[in-house]
Amino acid sequence: MNYPYQNFYEMLSAACNQNGRGVVVYHDKEKISYRELKRKAEAVAAYLQSIDVKYGDKVAMVVSNSPEFIISYFAITAIGAVAVPVNTFLKHEEFEYILNDCQAKVMFASIGLSKELKGLKKKTRLEKVIWIGGTEQSTDRHLSFADALAFTEEPDLSRQPQIDSLAHIIYTSGTTGHPKGALISYKNLFSNMAGAHEVFHVRKKDRFMVFLPMFHSFTLTAMVLLPVFAAGSMILVKSVFPFSNVLKQALLKRATVFLGVPAIYTAMGKAKIPWYFRWFNRLRIFISGGAPLAAQTIADFKAKFPSAELLEGYGLSECSPVVAVNRLEKQKVGSVGLPLPGYQVKAVDEELVEVPLGEVGELIVKCDAVMQGYLNMPEATGETIVNGWLKTGDLVTIDSDGFIFIVDRKKDLIISKGQNVYPREIEEELYKIEAVEAAAVIGVPDQYADEEIVAFVQLKENMSIKETEIRAHLRRHLANFKVPKEIHLKDELPRNATGKVLKRVLKQQFMKE
């Protein structure tokens, strides 16, 4: 495919030409125009060059959601350096691993995260830290973002990244061992943006709600870069809590596109939404990603927002990240939709041979969005990308219309007493119980090396239910071999930054008990 830009500086410049005075970022009472964003990004880009950041250098970003995140990202990429957005919820040792793995030379960091970041310069190759929100003390190694913004020299932009150049590195949470750095190019990202732009009918007047973490590939591509691709706007909300503030900002700032994860839509489907929000909001599309939506969540949401379109999609960091999404014109409940335009998908067996329509197979993807590989992990890259096809590790069925239905993660498959059990089927049933807020099902080995099914359930606040009642419900709706041997009621289930339940953590906790 042909893309309109080679890099993000070209994209930002084009947006300035189309909508220079238009607002690109709404943040509290602050409004940032496209011209202002470009000017600030250029100032910070020049500042980076002044502290010896060169083309191809890795620049880490441990930055909370803020205009500074956006400015820093465009500044880094403008000079051909590589941005490394890092999960702000990590702990000291995890930051240390990532910084050493990518060999980051400079790091942008929010001052509020200084406790976990303290001492990293001694354990990594970091030369300088640029603090956002102030510094404890300004030295030649601890710098202030305010000084970068005030820098008056012009950046040297004579060497610009090309379409196949590396734009950023996204570290996947992984299921075992250390996280892996997915190498994402400008082509990868423009492929995603162009497809989403077409599928969602994005317009210059669209305003995107941004409250999920910007370091996440889903938010960064679909809620930060896509609005700029369309010369539109984004509305930054500091936190998803209290959720009433998210709705308030959506209403006051006339948001049109809302991106969330299943936990958000589950809460919205159950919450009391003010009548005036339902009447006066301008939201035309709700997008869900990060994990499958339970059928009950979709039903509850539709009942609450009958005129809204809730489109479930699917992706993974290694695919920049969007692979498929339901369409405004046609949706199928329980499906993650059709592949983006031009994307090839197949459901295959262990030998990578395509299985017949409707049969379960591993989803593989081939398109311009497939990452270049994993940083410093050639073997893992070779196992994941075979002849240009990305092995997703997800088990799916594909119907005659091309719609993809996620059955389960391949590694989550439970084989109990010789029977294949898909945890999602049990979880779907658990979500139908009124008192259940969240649920996760895992397989744990027993003394005979078989797997037993174990369910973890988080109840809604001020609601109660007995384990025997849950088991009775499951027995009414599922085959006996699918009913968990153990059901554990938990005050809270462990989640990652995007709200996905961490089954790996649950399994570790269970095995220790």
UniProtKB/TrEMBL annotation:
GO terms for molecular function: long-chain fatty acid-CoA ligase activity. One of its GO terms (cellular component) is membrane. Gene3D superfamilies: 3.30.300.30, N-terminal domain of ligase-like (3.40.50.12780). This is Long-chain-fatty-acid--CoA ligase. Residues 16-375 form the AMP-dependent synthetase/ligase domain. InterPro entries: AMP-bd_C (IPR025110), AMP-bd_C_sf (IPR045851), AMP-binding_CS (IPR020845), AMP-dep_synth/lig_dom (IPR000873), ANL_N_sf (IPR042099), ATP-dep_AMP-bd_enzyme (IPR050237). Its main location: membrane.
